[in-house]
Amino acid sequence: MIRIILAFIVFGLTFGLAAPGCSDHQLSGKDLQELKKEEIKNGQGTLSPEAQFQIGTIQANSRSEFEEKVQQIKDADGARKNQG
Length: 84
Prior knowledge:
This protein is mainly alpha-helical. It has one domain (26-84). Helices cover 73% and strands 0% of the residues. It has helices at residues 2-18, 29-43, 49-56, 63-83. Helix 3 (49-56) runs antiparallel to helix 4 (63-83). The longest helix is centred in the C-terminal third of the chain and has 21 residues, at 63-83. The chain is elongated, with a radius of gyration of 19 Å.
């Protein structure tokens, strides 16, 4: 019985770690910096300098967390532009 449980645990961990297409993995510092650079580059001309700065200071553990924070910054930046 314990062997069966251990086999399921090992199988689950192996499958979970090797699952392709899982884009919400832990970001390395290098990956996070690359995402920031790309987002700032893509936003030049449309984002305010303040929004670009805020994107450059994002701390995120996953790509989805980063994208969520970027969207919040973009939404706030758009709201400020619409007020002015």
